[in-house]
Amino acid sequence: AFGTVLATSEVRNASAHGVLQLTLHAASYTWQFVPVAGQTFRDSGSAACVGGTAPTATPSATPQPTTAPPTTPTATPTTNLALNKATAVSSFERSSLSGDKAVDGDRSTYWRSKRRSQLPAEWITVDLGGSVAISRVILRWNQYYATNYRIQVSADNANWTTVFSTGSGNGGTDTITFAARAARYVRMYSTDWNRQAQRNWLNEIEIYQ
């Protein structure tokens, strides 16, 4: 009955007419009694919502800078294609100093062209056994070496293309690089030497892709 004051009641009025305006918030509400025209009774209040909790905003993820994947450097090919391959030479001093000694992987052995040879050129050819793209040749000279020579490649051991030449060889180790060429045969072709009577003493010829 209206005459009974409830525990949660704060005010009561039996003569005023109007509307109750209720405004909801995230975790609470407010209310206000608005009387009809001509009446003056007003009332208002606020309270927390039962069991209500304010919504928690989900923070936006902080954009991370885009990082390009690391680039793996291209490794220099390390397989010596000339190792233990068949060879041919212009001349040799004796069988223990033949062309195969320049491709045996042993730097204490060497190919030695014939002493006091009268040939116009001294050369060594390596047969790779099949066509392969190559771009690097290493010559490891002994104490006698070519000062004027060229590196040539061929598909048939008859028609040659020069990929490198020099007239100022100084022995030691010559590392020669050039644009990759497909070839089966590779030749070092020399025409002048630091000691004419001795000509070529070549410890190793190495060939790489």
Description:
The chain has 209 residues and is mostly beta strands. Helix content is 0%, strand content 44%. It has no helices and ten strands. It has strands at 18-24, 28-35, 43-48, 86-89, 111-112, 122-141, 146-154, 161-166, 173-193, 201-208. The strands form two sheets. Strands 4, 5, 6, 7, 8, 9 and 10 form a seven-stranded antiparallel sheet that branches. The protein is rod-shaped and about 140 Å long.
How is the topology of this model organized?
Layout: E1 18-24, E2 28-35, E3 43-48, E4 86-89, E5 111-112, E6 122-141, E7 146-154, E8 161-166, E9 173-193, E10 201-208
Antiparallel strand pairs: 1-2, 2-3, 4-6, 5-10, 6-9, 6-10, 7-8, 7-9
Could you list some keywords that capture this structure?
seven-stranded antiparallel sheet; rod-shaped; three-stranded antiparallel sheet; 209 residues; 10 strands; 0% helix; single chain
Major beta sheet summary: 7 strands, antiparallel
**How would you sum up the global shape?**
rod-shaped
Arithmetic mean pLDDT: 85
Low-confidence parts lasting 5 or more residues at pLDDT below 50?
none
Structural class: mainly beta
Number of helical regions = 0
Q: Give the helix proportion (percent range).
A: under 10%
